[in-house]
């Protein structure tokens, strides 16, 4: 009967935390379907170790760590079918609101970061974890978290500035073509 109690405890935890856990997974991988797969994989892996988590208040941190490790495994195992291009395709925005456009751009820009950098940025800024909490969750020193975050934010700034310059150059080119056509 102890095993059915284990199942109920785990099911109750998942039912209560599934939305927050899916948001965390969504921040780690850009594709919503991949995020669901990531969360499901992490839940399966966590279920087998559920009884070993003595302090269930740390279950979120444990699951985040499992998701980060799983995402890293996927990244390392991926086939390199990607072809580098000079121009990235425009981010698609379905509803047209500025907030969603900014979010789509940010998710797209996060893709330029290495997995370790993305993990640090997500935990520090989206999950609003402290430097110490982030270091503990990722198994690194606070100094490594700080330096990784510094480099990641610099890379994000550089990417956003690059995209802004590309956008303004495209606008100038389009205006020039309109003048020539007139």
UniProtKB/TrEMBL annotation:
Domain RNA polymerase sigma-70 region, chain residue ranges per copy: 15-79
Keyword vocabulary terms for this entry: DNA-binding, Sigma factor, Transcription, Transcription regulation
GO molecular function: DNA binding; sigma factor activity
Xref: SUPFAM superfamilies: Sigma2 domain of RNA polymerase sigma factors, Sigma3 and sigma4 domains of RNA polymerase sigma factors
Annotated GO biological process: DNA-templated transcription initiation; response to stress
CDD domains recorded: Sigma70_r4
Keyword Transcription regulation listed: yes
The keyword Heme is assigned to this record: no
Gene3D superfamilies xref list: 1.10.1740.10, Winged helix-like DNA-binding domain superfamily/Winged helix DNA-binding domain
All residue ranges annotated as the RNA polymerase sigma factor 70 region 4 type domain in the record: 105-156
Source species, domain of life: Bacteria
NCBIfam families: SigE-fam_strep, sigma70-ECF
Cross-referenced PANTHER family: ECF RNA POLYMERASE SIGMA FACTOR SIGM (PTHR43133:SF50), RNA POLYMERASE ECF-TYPE SIGMA FACTO (PTHR43133)
Family according to the record: Belongs to the sigma-70 factor family. ECF subfamily.
Protein name: RNA polymerase sigma factor
Provenance organism: Streptomyces klenkii
């Amino acid at each position: 009967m102890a095993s059915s109690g284990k199942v109920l405890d785990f099911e109750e935890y998942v039912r209560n935390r599934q939305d927050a856990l899916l948001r965390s997974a969504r921040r780690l991988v850009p594709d919503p379907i991949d995020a669901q797969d990531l969360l499901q994989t992490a839940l399966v892996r966590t279920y087998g170790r559920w009884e070993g988590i003595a302090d269930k208040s740390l279950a979120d941190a444990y699951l985040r760590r499992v998701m980060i490790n799983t995402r890293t495994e996927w990244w390392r195992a991926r086939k390199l079918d990607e072809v580098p291009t000079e121009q990235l395709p425009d981010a698609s925005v379905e509803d047209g609101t500025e907030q969603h456009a900014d979010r789509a751009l940010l998710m797209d820009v996060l893709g330029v970061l290495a997995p370790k950098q993305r993990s640090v940025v997500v935990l520090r800024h989206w999950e609003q974890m402290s430097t110490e909490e982030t270091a503990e969750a990722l198994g690194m020193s606070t100094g490594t978290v700080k330096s990784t975050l510094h480099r990641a934010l610099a890379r994000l700034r550089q990417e956003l500035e690059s995209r802004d310059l590309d956008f303004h150059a495209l606008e100038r080119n389009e205006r020039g073509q309109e003048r020539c056509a007139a």
